[in-house]
Amino acid sequence: MTICYQWEFTVALLMKSGRKRNAHSVLALGSKYSDAHFDMTYKLKKRGAQLISVVKVRVMGIAFAWDDNYKYIQPKLADCMPPIPENLNLNELKP
Q1: H or E segment at 35?
Q2: Apex CA 43: angle with CA 37 and CA 2, to 5°?
Q3: Nearby residues of 81 by Cβ (< 8 Å), 6 or more positions away
Q4: Which member of 29, 55, 83, 91 has the lowest number of beta carbons within 10 Å of its beta carbon?
Q5: DSSP 8-state code for residue 72
Q6: Quick one: 6 exposed, middle or buried, by C-beta within 10 A (0-12, 13-18, 19+)?
Q7: What pLDDT, in 10s, does the model give residues 31-47?
Q8: How far apart are CA 88 and CA 79, in angstroms?
Q9: Neighbours of 53 (CB within 10 A)
């Protein structure tokens, strides 16, 4: 089963103009936290903004889901909540 979630990131960032924003909201899609974090950083890069840190994250809902036969299904978010890591800033993690 493949599930893609819609995530809401509240981030602190440095705008292209040099202005610092401490509570900017960005929506992203991803099947796990690292995928959604990549989507969010890519969107910020396209806007010319630089990510300082991730303040908070929440899962808004399920964007889409498929079963093993690639049929569309509608699971409930409460039944398949994705794990959210303690350290929200993936760019600080070391491999």
Answers
A1: helix 33-47
A2: 50
A3: 59
A4: 83
A5: B
A6: middle
A7: 999 999 999 999 999 99
A8: 23
A9: 12
